[in-house]
Amino acid sequence: MRALPRLAVRPFANRTSRATCQRLLARRTYANIAAHKFGQPLHETHPHLLKPGELSPGITAVEYHERRARLAKSLPRGGIAVLPSSEIKTRSGAVFYEFHQQPDFFYLTGFTEPEALAVIAREESELGYSFHLFVRPKDNHAEVWDGARSGIDAAKDVFNADESHDINRVASILPDLLQGSEVVYTDVLKPHRSQSSLSKLLGHGSTPTDGSLQSLLKAGNVKPLKPVMNQLRLTKSAAEVANMRKAGKLSGRSFTDAMRKSYKLEKDLWTDLGYGFRSRGLDGEAYVPVVAGGTNGLSIHYVRNDDALHDGQLVLVDAGGEYGGYITDITRTWPVNGKFSSAQKDLYNMVLNVQRSCVSMCREDASTTLDGLHRIATNGLQDGLRSLGFDISGNAMDVLFPHHVGHHIGLDVHDAPGFSRSEWLKEGQCITMEPGIYVPDDEKWPSHFRGMAIRIEDSICVTKENPLVLTTEAVKEVDDIEALRGGGSV
């Protein structure tokens, strides 16, 4: 297996003292931690999932500390950041959707429970910051129904908060924490429809209540936190890249296994992929996948996945697994019957050549941007389409290639949302490359290509000189795809 690329040294990585590391890795209250119940896995309770020192798979308590320290250093003197967790979303009645933690909150805390609030203030101290964590208290009755909670003590003793508090006391405690802060960085003032207890405590809604965070911040100097977090999350640590590489490798194997099989229904292919992700050790699907047979692939985000698959069609599959919160993003297109027709092969190889060319430029020394790579992809696809007999005058490319060629990935499928695609790509950033061609069933286009949808996507870590493709185990060469169904080995 190829060694991980050398990544830039993270700020604070060499400044964390031995004493600080020991404090962060210690369990300070629980004499027998494995006998207690917590709201998420710990090494002591789930050693098959986490290694010693890790708060979440692959990420140690020390790294979470370094992230908080980097955030604090990014704030001005007197700055403070306020981050709420995600909330449980109801599907209907008492039935709820699977919980997914708010990525910025998770990035800084490693805490995966709902109804929590992190307050991180810059301070001139050894750590460089103070960390307050509001969480749900232990509640025997509630835990009988909804599972264990970590509780207030664990917020300090496990998750290394300097001070921990009952989330129900936000309104009485938070004003004192904000007092004296010159500027507050937060995104909680965005419109929010939830009516959960955390939402009400934060004052979401049209009429903020007295003592709510919204009312507290109304007269203060408030700035959005998202731009600061984008900068912090954009460059991945070696541990983050390792998580994404594991997600990419195991997801890729699931794709390749799916290509070996013959399916009659989109939902059966979808089921096999999801099972493949989990059975190989991933946490599950990173997002609702696209499993699109034939002309269904002309819809970029087709997710019904309820149609039949027919001989002679292509099937376009955009899916990926998740590990420790980190995702992978893969798209492959292959023939339902395992054998490309002549026209399918011509269009597929054209898209593949463009994709390979773009992937090769995902390195810092190429001095390019995502927008620059999009222009390269567009020009390459235009030339390829011309050679195949397409008329690409007018708005043809807007129809045939309607989306951008790539985006950042990490804890989110579209990581660092709002970050400009015109910024230079740097070592340690992780992105996708996904050129595609979508040919409507229209007389304007050559008849033998009509109705075809082909997209090829890999997840990539940008390095100094040689891109690290995280998803190589999902085969994409025509000969390799056809060999899978023909009994050959890849």
Task: Provide a descriptive summary of the structure in words.
- There is one protein chain.
- The protein is an alpha+beta fold.
- 32% of the residues lie in helices and 16% in strands.
- The chain is built from 15 helices and 21 strands.
- The strands form seven sheets. A six-stranded mixed beta sheet has the order 8-7-6-3-9-10, sandwiched between helices. A three-stranded antiparallel beta sheet has the order 11-14-15.
- Strand 4 and strand 5 form a beta hairpin.
- Helix 12 packs antiparallel against helix 13.
- The longest helix is centred in the middle third of the chain and has 22 residues, at 238-259.
- The chain starts with 17 loop residues before the first helix and ends with a helix.
- The model is unreliable at 1-14 and 205-211 (pLDDT under 50).
- Its cofactor is Mn(2+).
- Residues 59-195 form the Aminopeptidase P N-terminal domain.
Summary tags:
490 residues; alpha+beta; six-stranded mixed beta sheet; three-stranded antiparallel beta sheet; 15 helices; 32% helix; 16% strand; disordered N terminus
Quick one: overall form? globular
Structural class: alpha+beta
By DSSP, the count of extended strands is 21
Low-confidence stretches: 1-14, 205-211
Query: Major sheet: size, sense and barrel closure?
Result: 6 strands, mixed
Q: List the strand order in the largest sheet.
A: 8-7-6-3-9-10
Helix content: 25-40%
Evaluate the radius of gyration. 25 Å
Overall pLDDT metric = 90
Q: Strand share of the residues? A: 15-25%
Count of helices? 15
Function: Catalyzes the removal of a penultimate prolyl residue from the N-termini of peptides.
Pfam family, one: AMP_N
GO cellular component, one term: mitochondrion
GO molecular function, one term: metalloaminopeptidase activity
